[in-house]
Amino acid sequence: MIQTLPSKPGVYQFFDEKGKVIYVGKAKNIKKRVASYFNRDRYDSGKIMVMVRRVADIRHIIVDTELDALLLENNLIKKYQPRYNVLLKDDKTFPWICIKNEPFPRIFPTRNLVRDGSKYFGPYASVKMMNALLDLVRQLFQYRTCRLNLTKENIEAGKFKVCLEYHLGNCLGPCEGLQDESDYQETINRIEDILKGNLGTVTQELKGLMKKYADEFAFEKANVVKEKIELLEKFQAKSMVVNPSVSNVDVFSIVSDQEFGFVNFLKVVNGAIVQSHTLEIKKRLEETDTELLEVAITELRQRFNSDAREIITPLKLQTPLPDVKFTVPRRGDKKKLLELSERNAKYYRLEKRKQKELVDPERHTRRLLDRMKEDLRLNTRPVHIECFDISNTQGAQPVAAMVVFKDARPSRKEYRHYNIKTVEGPNDYASMEEAVYRRYKRLLEEQQPLPHLLVVDGGKGQLSSALNALEKLDLRKKIPVIGIAKRLEEIYYPGDSVPLYIDKKSETLKVIQHMRDEAHRFGINHHRGRRQKASLKSQLSEIKGIGPKTAETLLKKFRSVAGIKKAGFEAWKETVGPAKANILQAFFQEKNKGGSTQP
Questions:
Q1: Helix axes of 181-195 and 199-215: crossing angle, nearest 10 degrees
Q2: CB neighbours of 228 closer than 8 A, spacing ≥ 6?
Q3: What is this structure's pTM?
Q4: Three-state SS for 576?
Q5: Residues 450-507: pLDDT tens digits?
Q6: Domain chopping of the chain, boundaries
Q7: What is the phi/psi pair of residue 120, to 5°?
Q8: How far is Cα 392 from Cα 397, in angstroms, rounded to an integer?
Q9: Residues 6+ apart with CB under 8 A from 471
Q10: CATH fold label, 371-528
Q11: How far apart (Å, rounded) are the C-alpha atoms in residues 366 and 392?
């Protein structure tokens, strides 16, 4: 079957035994591309293996160019929705602005495109943006909103009378022949320029008209035009994002994870964004960002009728478009546009995740835990995870912090600190071993459940220390352990010198990073508190007659030196006795005489 396929550009379709299309693909060389699926050395994805086993028939369509293949592939995917092709998640109808093909054209929003010669602008992904444009042209220009059939014959026959809109000044009364068709068409032409994003052209025309009225001493008319110019410039200023010289470009960016790709599209005319939309794409065969971006560019340029001659993207694409320049910017205004598009895509993805969590939080948690189980090569879902981090200042007062995550979320009431007791000097490895040993020795003694995963902040050294502690407790094979190294976010496993590199965009890595950061924050805060307490204790111990134990008792009761001073004699007496209270009173009185309140 494969041997008879042509070595030409085109589209191929895989059918299952029931005759249903399960995959559609494009290729520069159909024969080579299809043959690659049946080469066992080619695929490293289990999903591709499963699809190939289901292929019962292969059909193809030859086209002239790669672009034709890309367009045909996109149309066939939308038509058949094959199981193994990416799934474009939105199928809603977007609104358009219609300028009707009729005498004295009407302007109105619609979701239905009628091929009758009318002009359509859009579609608009944001109804708010569309309404803002309609409000703008309504304030700038006078045109009819009625549905009357304003043919020349009907107007001359006197069939119509002006309505309230005429008396309000929103219409110039073409229904009674008070405005001729050529004058009305000039207004429509200006409105078309605005809807195309050519705000500068309209502004220049209005400035010329204002000057003409001023030269004729028609100052009231000139002032009306001036107000329109100010309104137009105000609207343009809100839309301006880069230099106006960036004219008629499309901007595409992508953010993705294991399951979805989110492609944001910005249409920019004269430095102003006139359209924006984010497309959600469901992955089926672990498609790359480049593959998803090509699908999205084809779909969105068709959907939004874009004829831009330049496309800004973050990646170099494989399939060229005729008469279109692809730009991957490194700096400047175009780079700023790309970054803006990427932020839109990221916010859209974040919003989608929050919506899913709100609708079905349990399902979201199960999916996340299943993903972590797969990514980290675990035997069970890591419902209960514990993470350790060591904090010290040049070996002084080392502290271990242990944080607990349940269902991939912090369980702060179960966080614990461990003041290291058996280690002298800056030895993070020995400190890690002590903390892990003390934690799980206690859990065993209290018959508490063990975690499904133990994470240590550090590389092979910290990991080995944690394993030594578990070995002493005979827990080596009962608790899975991994280490995370900060520099490259490497994941280390026991007995494996080669680290695992998880996708930087993955939710699994984000959860582990969150745990590591929480442990670090928790440990640093506690360590800072210990240092402050030790410093205050040292200051109090310098008072003749106040020893370390008395200083610790005072700090425990009053929290700070300022708190001790404020408490007063009776409180001191009750806490440390009359003799020590007299010493404190004498000390603070002496300090007050010297102008200082601190020991």
A1: 140
A2: 139, 140, 206
A3: 0.48
A4: helix
A5: 999 999 988 888 899 999 999 999 998 899 999 988 767 788 888 887 888 877 778 8
A6: 2-85, 96-197, 249-356, 371-528, 542-593
A7: -120, 135
A8: 6
A9: none
A10: Nucleotidyltransferase; domain 5 (3.30.420)
A11: 37
Q: Could you list the beta-strand ranges (E) of 471-598.
A: 481-485, 490-493, 496-500
Q: Rounded distance, CA 49 to CA 43, Å?
A: 7
**Residue 356 parent element (H or E):** helix 332-359
Q: How far apart are CA 117 and CA 101, in angstroms?
A: 6
What is the C-alpha separation between 444 and 472, in angstroms, rounded?
A: 12
- Residue 421 CA, chain-centre distance (Å), reads 45
Asked if 491 and 376 count as a contact pair (C-beta separation under 8 A), the reply is yes
pLDDT at 472: 92
d(CA 319, CA 311): 13
**295 Cβ contact partners less than 8 Å away, ≥ 6 residues apart:** 74, 77, 86, 88, 281
Tens digit of each residue's pLDDT (9 = 90 or more) over 77-113: 877 888 888 776 654 556 888 999 999 999 998 887 7
Around Cβ 393, how many Cβ atoms within 10 Å?
A: 13
Taking the C-alpha atoms of 83, 85, 86 and 88 in order, what is their torsion angle to the nearest 10 degrees?
Answer: -70
CA distances (Å), origin 577, targets 540, 541, 563, 584: 16, 17, 17, 11
Would strands 481-485 and 453-457 be described as parallel, antiparallel, or unpaired?
A: parallel
pLDDT tens sequence across 279-318: 888 888 778 888 889 888 888 888 887 888 899 999 888 7
Cα torsion for 155, 157, 159, 163, to the nearest 10°?
Answer: 40
Long-range contacts, stretch 496-499, CB < 8 angstroms, 24+ apart:
497/460, 499/459
Amino acid residing at 189: N
Instruction: Name the amino acid, one letter, at 322.
Output: P
- Residues 108 and 131: their CA atoms lie apart, in Å, by 10
CATH code for the domain defined by 2-85 = 3.40.1440.10
10 HSE (CA, 13 A, CB side): 15
CB atoms within 10 A of CB 43: 17
The identity of residue 234, as a single letter, is K
For helices 460-472 and 428-445, the axis angle rounded to 10 degrees is 30
d(CA 116, CA 118): 6
| Three state DSSP letters for 126-173 | CHHHHHHHHHHHHHHCCCCCCCCCCCHHHHHCCCCCCCHHHHCCCCCC
Residue 440: both structure tokens together:
């799980």
The token duo for 257 is 């994870």
